[in-house]
Write a structure and sequence with these properties.
There is one protein chain. This protein starts with a strand and ends in an 8-residue tail after the last helix. The protein has 282 residues and is of the alpha/beta class. The strands form 3 sheets. The chain has a 5-stranded mixed β-sheet. The chain has a 4-stranded mixed β-sheet with strand order 11-10-9-12, with helices on both faces. It contains 8 helices and 12 strands. It is 36% helix and 24% strand. The structure holds zinc ion. Zinc ion binds next to loops. The site of zinc ion has 6 residues, from loops.
């Protein structure tokens, strides 16, 4: 039997079909359109699953179940997204909606928790996602740290700057408001407005996080300054998590992680120099 995995993001819905050996045999991505009602987004989750099945040359009859990773607080037992600010979702019974449409059992968990669970072999590990928001999955002493009702490991909503930028959660200065792709785009647009001669200004309203990194790689000083500061925002939050949890490994996922070493090298250097004990080595 095959299984369907859905990565529900603030920007895209990715659907994949995996075989019994956990090999990805087909995948499809659709825009989330998170400004729409939840019913429309769930209908597109099902459409993405159907397209992925079609691509794999199978039907729902060949599938055992659907698994969904969603941002925000998820009630896994009842298949309900309790609270996902980046989707504007509150108490959406996504699993029963998907089951009604696809006729398959559906399971749900927080996206970063799913990603953390997928990375086996570490007893102490932190996974963060840099996407529309900042998600977190924490494995401590070999167990996924979920907290009461799945409310734990919301690392994106720990404060980096007191009285800082407005966050989607209603608080000010959250790490997410500095380290998400959304925050990077905001930082890039501000730099473009302040320095209209910068390459950043050429992208206009459609500026993406990748564009900011690309402009920096092309030698644009304003973009490089944004990237440098952004990497410090990400790294400062990671340093706090490292000091709290002392993990064997920190993994970074989400759209911005595709920047690879452009992102990772400055983060590694910052964390090594600033984590507790890091100054011993400098
Ligand atoms: Zn927040």
């Amino acid at each position: 039997m095959y299984r369907i995995g859905i990565d529900l993001g603030g920007t895209n819905i990715a659907a994949g079909v995996v075989d019994e050996g956990q090999h990805l045999v087909a995948e499809v991505s659709l825009p989330t359109g998170a400004e729409r009602p939840a019913e429309a987004v769930v209908a597109d989750i099902c459409r993405a699953a159907e397209k992925a099945m079609e691509k794999a040359g199978i039907t729902a009859a060949h599938c055992a179940s659907v698994g969904i990773g969603s941002p925000g607080t998820c009630d896994s037992a009842n298949g309900v997204v309790v609270r996902a600010y980046n989707l504007g979702w509150f108490n959406v019974p996504v699993c029963s909606m998907v089951t009604a449409q696809l006729g398959l059992p559906c399971h749900l968990s927080n996206d970063a928790n799913c990603a953390a669970l997928a990375e086996t072999g570490c007893r102490n590990m932190i996974l963060i996602t840099l996407g529309t928001g900042v998600g977190g999955g924490i494995v401590a002493d070999g167990r996924l740290l979920e907290g009461v009702g799945g409310t734990g490991a919301e690392v994106g909503h720990t404060v980096l700057v007191l009285d800082g930028e407005d966050c989607t959660c209603g608080r000010k200065g959250c790490w997410e408001a500095y380290a998400s792709a959304t925050a990077l785009i905001r930082q890039g647009k501000r730099a473009a407005a302040a320095q209209p001669e910068s390459l950043l200004a050429g992208y206009g309203e459609g500026l993406t996080g990748k564009d900011v990194f690309d402009a920096a790689a092309a030698g644009d000083a304003a973009a490089q300054a944004v990237v440098d500061r952004y990497c410090v925002y990400v790294a400062a939050g990671i340093t706090d998590l490292v000091n709290i949890l002392g993990p064997e490994m920190v993994l970074i996922g989400g759209g911005i992680s595709r920047q690879g070493e452009r992102l990772l090298a400055p983060i590694r250097a910052y964390v090594a120099a600033n984590c507790f004990g890091g100054h011993d080595r400098t």
